Amino acid sequence: MARGYDVRGGNSAGGLVALAAVVVLWVASSFLLKTLFTVYRKPLLVTYCSVSSCTLYLLPRLVRCGWSRRRRWSRWHGSVVDDTELTPLLSKESEGDDKICGGDGQDGMSVRDTARLAAVFCLLWVGANVATNAALAYTTVSAQTILSSTASFFTLLFGAIARVESVTGRKLVGIAVSFTGVVIVVAWGHASPAVQELSLGQVPVSSTLIGNVLALTGAVIYGVYSTLFKRAATHRSQSTVDVQLFVGFVGLCTLLLLWPLLIVAHYAGWETLELPSRSTVALPVVVLGIAANCTLTIVSDLCWAHAVYRTQPLTVTLGLSGTIPLAMLVEYLVGGTQTVTRAYGLGALLVVCSFLLTATVTETPKTEASTPTPTPP
Hints:
disordered C terminus; mainly alpha; about 70% helix; two-stranded antiparallel sheet
């Protein structure tokens, strides 16, 4: 598998395959979290654990770095050649070590720059995931996925501002078709679930409303960070980025920098740090649920980054609207709580058509990266 990819949209077929994987994995994760939150409602803790688990993507790089330096040290101590012959060899190997262990690579974004980029993005990444995951504690998977699909509007808006998306007629039509499909599904696609009343201070608020607001908030943040990721990756004539390394550093930065959020949330009364109650569920069940979600997150986040990097942010965002029909179908098959109507079928079809409209757009706006560098095989 290639370590870097051309930011100008090369290998878009691979990006669409990665996008399809994200759709399936996100729906699976949503249903898993929906079940987990019925007995252990800790969206911030679960999100922190899930995103931090992406640190595992750094292990291959650490192994390669350690092996490279050990080999260089062994050759230096075991060499019988004089200094004039050894110096060019060590200089050449040092350049290779720099590319692997954090120096400035000549064929793409360096390890240090990738780490800095991840440090900037980890808060947005976690924020979007927390909002989206928390929505599942108050509303259905279908409602959450439907409202999350509104990220297409924010992606186009922010993308146009950042000049990583060109506002074309086909894209506008695609968004209009997607929005129409979403409205049809929301208004007439299925029967509304029972509404639970919660209290915010002295004001009673529908739990569904809270979930919908959280899902919409996640969509806004998603539009911001997916656009900024594409923008930052093409900055200063960088044409390739190690997506696996980027996701790994996002996990590491989350693990090391964002744990205070758990303490703040605990003392602010937003989310109490505690083990699950023995009267409701066994601890191993919660641990297994979190571990399973971590696994889904590790794979889906990497696939998402590949999809955004190989295609366009708007294409990925509209493509993720495919979670709507899949989520509603699974919800109907599993619980029988949704009534599939003709309106639902029409709305789902419109969402799919909007994705096809934008997925076939091959043009790419001009960025500051004017000189591409070759992508390694």
